[in-house]
Specification:
Structural class: alpha/beta
Shape: globular
Bound molecules: thiamine diphosphate, magnesium ion
Number of strands: 8
Number of domains: 1
CATH architecture: 3-Layer(aba) Sandwich
């Protein structure tokens, strides 16, 4: 099975076992490391808070996929738009969203980034270029294309990026969006986070052709498959795609191969459900994107173990402050419940 080939790292199009090789400056790599650790530690803390039932909004954790959001968003400017999905925390933090406001949103508090009315699946940070996210699979892809159309009509040099999962490749709107964006050479990039599963279904059981990046060919645009756990590959590929979009050379489809360590929704790995094997999970955990970058930085002498420890400590403290902030914040006023929502 293709899935088994990916899982064992034998697919020649994926060089997952290779060390990270990069022409990216050590400063930028370290900055991206901090973002990835922030996403990882945030998600781990959220998982604990879901287990203790302090957070009750359904949470789709991004643990294991951090390099995709971080690498792509690191190539974007603040004014560029990012559109996210039900698995949105990583995109929000990588685009520069406020940690406290995100945690408060998960507690459904008034101080949350969507005023406590969106929960985990509807985060937004318009001021940082994340106008919204949606749990409708594939739903934000045409919205990203619409934003790109607006940018191009306004002669703005901003671009938009649509993040979506492999599940969106089952949706007609994905293909319509690729066609229109390519036809009009719109400034948009399509980032498919292929984590091999759509809820409990493997890509092998849902896609007639599991090479999602090849769908681009039908719409006369470039499509590329990359190792989504290799931050330098994600960054360098996204940088080229963003430059093309900004120079009105049209969109690119990036298929980033990655893997979620936890179940589709919730804090557990869900191995007991029998849908994926421990062997497969272990294999992907060995390709941890955070650890891979950390090893590279240490080897290159770009950081020290002392600095790494300090980064982890500082981020943990920041997250605890966000938890306190969320706990102490009020719920939205009862009279306000019908504001900020579609009626
Ligand atoms: C249009 C639509 N169909 C079905 C669902 C139910 N659903 C929610 S998440 C999900 C899986 C999406 O998988 P994928 O796009 O691969 O993203 P991942 O969860 O793997 O990150 C599905 C089918 C939905 N929310 N919207
Ligand atoms: Mg998926």
């Amino acid at each position: 099975m293709v899935q088994a080939i990916w899982a064992r790292g034998k697919d020649s199009t994926l060089k997952m076992k290779q060390p990270l090789s990069s022409s990216i400056s050590p400063e930028l790599l370290l900055k991206m490391y901090v973002t990835m650790v922030k996403i990882r530690k945030f998600e781990e803390r959220v998982a604990d808070l879901v287990i203790s039932k302090e957070i009750v909004t359904p949470t789709h954790l991004y643990i294991g996929e951090e390099a995709v959001a971080t690498g792509v968003c690191s190539t974007l400017k603040k004014q560029d738009y990012v559109f996210s999905t039900h698995r949105s925390h990583g995109h929000y933090l990588a685009k520069g969203g406020d940690l406290k406001a995100l945690m408060a949103e998960l507690y459904c508090k008034k101080t949350g980034c969507s005023r406590g009315k969106g929960g985990s699946m509807h985060v937004a940070s318009p001021e940082m270029g994340l106008p919204g996210s949606s749990a409708i699979v594939g739903g934000t892809i045409p919205i990203a294309v619409g934003a790109a159309l607006a940018f191009s009509m306004q002669n703005s040099d901003a671009i938009s990026a649509a993040f979506f999962g492999d599940g969106a490749a089952h949706e007609g709107v994905f293909y319509e969006s690729l066609n229109f964006a390519s036809l009009k050479k719109l400034p948009v990039i399509f980032v498919c986070e292929n984590n091999l599963y759509c809820t409990h279904l493997s890509v092998v059981d849902t896609l007639a052709d599991t090479n999602i990046y090849k769908k681009a060919e039908a719409f006369a645009m470039p499509g590329v498959r990359i190792d989504g756990n290799d931050i330098s590959e994600v960054y360098e590929t996204a940088k080229r795609a963003v430059e093309n979009a900004r120079q009105s050379r049209g969109p690119t489809l990036i298929e980033a191969m990655t893997y979620r360590w936890r179940g589709h929704v919730g804090p557990y790995d869900d191995l007991d459900k029998g849908l994926r094997s421990k062997e497969e999970l272990d294999c992907w955990m060995q390709r941890c994107p955070v650890r891979k970058l950390e090893k590279h930085l240490l080897k290159q002498g770009a950081t020290s173990q002392l600095e790494i420890n300090q980064i982890h400590k500082t981020i943990s403290e920041e997250i605890e402050k966000a938890v306190e902030f969320a706990r102490e914040s009020p719920y939205p006023d009862e009279n306000d419940l019908l504001h900020d929502v579609h009626k």
